[in-house]
Write a structure and sequence with these properties.
Distance between the termini: 50 Å
Low-confidence stretches: 340-372
Number of domains: 2
Order of helices and strands: EEHEEEEEEEHEEEHEHEH
Number of strands: 14
CATH superfamily of the largest domain: P-loop containing nucleotide triphosphate hydrolases
Structural class: alpha/beta
Oligomer: single chain
CATH architecture of the largest domain: 3-Layer(aba) Sandwich
Strand content: 15-25%
Radius of gyration: 29 Å
Helix content: 10-25%
Length: 372
């Protein structure tokens, strides 16, 4: 699994070029001097990203550095339209972000199963000479060439979709917690950086309530400078509704560890600090009542804190209840956000009317040169 988990690929994509329009004239036994009957060229093939809930990694694209779509066919006599170029559909996991490699501009984020995005558009086919005939130009001997293909380097990044993200130092008990409250089976050992790739688990809270938890490799001080595994996997908690900070009960300085973790998240993306945070003290079975009171005095007061033990099961149900409460509150807040005054109501008539693009083609099918 560690070798097969790929969350970053850089690929070169080239769409298909449009087909040449035909400048043919009708010639047959009954009509030796017929008019222009050249057909339009076919459009070039698109390169399309499609989200697939059954995929968990970008591994299939790791060894496919160059992606080329098919070219459109040329138009021919009798107003025959050229064949459209073959599209290339790249299936990616949910949570994939597409960027332009040179500028870093984000083009799309695919978060729903079956969602599609046209990464590179094929060139439009050229118009045949039959489009240019008129009363003053009855024999046009020219046709449009097809539009050229488009090409560029693109970056695909995977950000796993989870409700809760686990943040902590190596050996803080993140994988042990995930294994205790879900059916996931992450690698658990007594040495640092046991977890090398993100692990996901579905946690059952109560009755039919469940949520997804993500365990990422441990963070150490200086991760933003490339120490340890760096910030490579922090992108996976950017979409989490709740961040669960884990600090082991046997840590030398609990408050200092919490401060370092916050600093590393801020260095990576300050927006992460705006998320709901819970502080969990793992391995609580190592503490008696007196030591637990001493640890509680060291902890920050601006964040909810829970003691638990994944080994004995102590505090796990209250932890799951609190996480579910925070997830529900975040979902309610997002669904109650007011609509932007510039956002069109999808049920309004004007939301379905065609507009015009930069070249003057109407949004409706009839105005497009590729339309029959």
């Amino acid at each position: 699994m560690e070798k097969n988990f790929i969350d970053y690929v850089k690929i070169f994509c080239r769409s298909g070029k449009g087909g040449q329009g035909s400048a043919h004239f009708l010639r047959d036994r009954s009509n030796p001097r017929g008019g222009p009957d050249g057909g339009d060229g076919g459009r070039g093939g698109h390169i399309i990203l499609q989200a697939n809930a059954q995929r968990w990694t970008l591994l299939p694209l790791k060894y496919r550095k160059h992606v080329f779509a098919g070219d459109g066919g040329a138009g021919s006599r009798n107003n025959r339209h050229g064949a459209d170029g073959e599209d290339v559909v790249l299936e990616v996991p949910l949570g994939t972000v597409a960027k332009i490699a040179e500028t870093g501009e984000i083009l799309a984020e695919l978060t729903e199963d079956g969602e599609r995005f046209e990464l590179v558009s094929g060139g439009r086919g050229g118009l045949g000479n039959s489009h240019f005939k008129s009363s003053t130009n009855q024999a046009p001997r020219y046709a449009q060439p097809g539009e050229p293909s488009s090409e560029d380097w693109y970056i695909l990044e995977l950000k796993v979709l989870a409700d809760v993200g686990l943040v902590g130092f190596p050996n803080a008990g993140k994988s042990t917690l995930l294994a205790a409250i879900s059916a996931a089976k992450p690698k658990v050992a007594s040495y640092a950086f046991t977890t090398l790739v993100p692990n996901l688990g579905i946690v059952s809270a109560r009755e039919d309530r469940s949520f997804v938890m993500a365990d990422i490799p441990g963070i150490i001080e200086g991760a933003h400078e490339g120490k340890g595994l760096g910030h490579r996997f922090l992108r996976h908690i950017e979409r989490n509704a709740v961040l669960l900070f884990l600090i082991p009960a046997d840590a030398e300085d609990h408050a200092e560890q919490h401060r370092i973790l916050l600093g590393e998240l801020e260095a990576y993306n300050p927006a992460l600090l705006a998320k709901e945070r819970i502080l969990g003290i793992s391995k609580a079975d190592l503490l008696d009542a007196e030591l637990r009171a001493e640890v509680a005095e060291e902890l920050p007061t601006d964040v909810q804190t829970l003691f638990f033990s994944a080994v004995t099961g102590e505090g796990l149900q209250p932890l799951k209840d609190l996480l579910w409460q925070c997830i529900s509150a975040d979902l309610l807040e997002r669904t109650e956000q007011p609509r932007s005054p510039f956002e069109l109501d999808p049920d309004a008539p004007e939301a379905h009317e065609g507009g015009t693009d930069a070249e003057g083609w109407t949004g409706g099918e009839a105005g497009h040169p590729d339309a029959p």
